[in-house]
Design goal:
Largest sheet: none
Oligomer: single chain
Helix content: 40-55%
Structural class: mainly alpha
Shape: elongated
Radius of gyration: 19 Å
Length: about 100
């Protein structure tokens, strides 16, 4: 059985992913708290959150878009492939083919 406890070698991947979400999305929001406790944007966080009334639905949509962009962006760590391309290659190599059926649900 595989060890499912996160290993220090995978931490960088997770940190990079969260860093990308922050830099390409969350830190661009008017209600961002910035990247640390001394970030000057923290001064107006609550006022901006109320003023711009960012909804839960808008946040989940932003997260969906950010993850889709991340998964379709080439990465050096996987030989210039996007994570989706890398996953597709790995599935193909393992004999697990991806079949797309157009026009059926």
């Amino acid at each position: 059985m595989r060890n499912l406890i996160p290993h220090s070698s995978t931490r960088g991947i997770v940190e990079r992913f969260f860093g990308t979400l922050e830099s390409r999305g969350f830190h661009m929001l008017p209600s961002t708290t910035g990247s640390d406790t001394k970030d000057p944007v923290r001064k107006k966080t609550e006022k901006n959150a109320i003023k711009y009334d960012v909804t839960y639905e808008q946040m989940t949509e932003l997260i969906d878009v950010l993850i889709a962009e991340y998964n379709n962006t080439p990465h050096k760590g996987v030989d210039g492939l996007s994570p989706l391309e890398c996953m597709s290659c790995k599935l193909f190599q393992a004999g697990l083919y991806i079949y797309l059926i157009h026009g059926t649900h």
